[in-house]
Amino acid sequence: MSLPFPNFSPVALSIGPVNVTWYGISYAVGIFLGWRYILHLLKKHASPPLTSQTFDDFIAWAIFAIIVGGRLGYILFYRPLYYLSHPFEILYTWEGGMSFHGGLLGVLIAALIFCRSQKIPLLQFTDFLACAAPLGIFLGRLANFVNGELFGRTTSVIWGIYFPKGGNVPRHPSQLYEAFFEGFLLFSLLFFLARRDASWKRHGFLTSVGLIGYGFLRIGCEFFRLPDAYLGFFLQSFTWGQLLSLPMIFLGVILLKKRVQPL
Fold it and tell me: Is residue 12 part of a domain?
C-alpha cells in the first residue's frame, strides 16, 4: 500500500553550466515572502521606531546570516571531525549540508549587531522575524522532499514512501510532516496571535512563542525522521536535532516568563 517516490529532479532549470535547484529557489522565495509579510505586518501594526526601510536594510544581513550560519552550524553541530580533516569541502555548499539551528543562530547574531548599530529594540525587531520565519521553513522542507533527503524512519502506514536513497522499505515522508507542523501550523499560530494588538505591546512575546513552538514541533517530528547515519541516536532514542531544539524552548520560556521588555 506504500507509495513510490515521485520522479522529481532537484534541478528546477539549467542556464548553460549553471543549475538552479529547488532548494536554492526555496531559500530565495522564502526570504522574499518573509520580507513582504513583515512589511504587511508593519502596515497593520505600526511599531516605531521600526519602518519598512529598517527591514529593507536588513535583507542583505539576513541572507548572509542564513547561509553562513546554516553552513557553519552544520559543520560544527553535525560533522566537525570530518570537516577538520577535509577543510576545503567546507566551501562545497552545492553538495548540501545546512543546519536550521545554525541559520537561526546566525540570524539572531546578525539581528543583535544590526539592532545595536541602528539603536533599535532587539525583541521588538525579532517579533517580526519570528512571524515570517515559518514561511521559509515550510518551503525548505518541501525542497528537502523534492531532493529525496532527510526522509523518515521505516513505517507500515499507507502513505509511506519508497525513497530512492532510503532502501527497499517504505518510510515516513518526515519532510512533509515538518513542512506542515514547523511551517504551516507554526505560521498559523503566529498569524493568529499577530492579529491581536496585545501581542505587539509586550515585546518578545511572539519571539518566545516562535522559539517554543518550533522547538516542541521539531522534537515531535524528529521521532519520525531518520537521524543521519554518522550521528545515530543519543541515549538510544533521541536525535541531535531534538537536543539542539531544547535550548530554543528554554530561551523561549525565559522570555515568556519574564514578560520581557524592549532591550
Answer: yes
